[in-house]
Amino acid sequence: MRYLILLFLLAGPLVAAEDRFLAEREALVGEIEADVRATRSYLDTETLDAAVLEAMRSVPRHRFVPDDEVEHAYENRPLPIGHGQTISQPYIVAIMTDLLEPAPEHKVLEVGTGSGYQAAVLAEIVESVHSIEIIEPLGESARRRLEKLGHDNVQVRVGDGYYGWPEGAPYDGIVVTAVASHVPPPLLQQLKPGGRMIIPVGSRFLTQQLVLVEKAADGTVTTQQILPVRFVPLTGGHD
Ligand code: SAH
Question: Mind listing the domains of the chain with CATH numbers?
Answer without folding.
Answer: 2-229 (3.40.50.150)
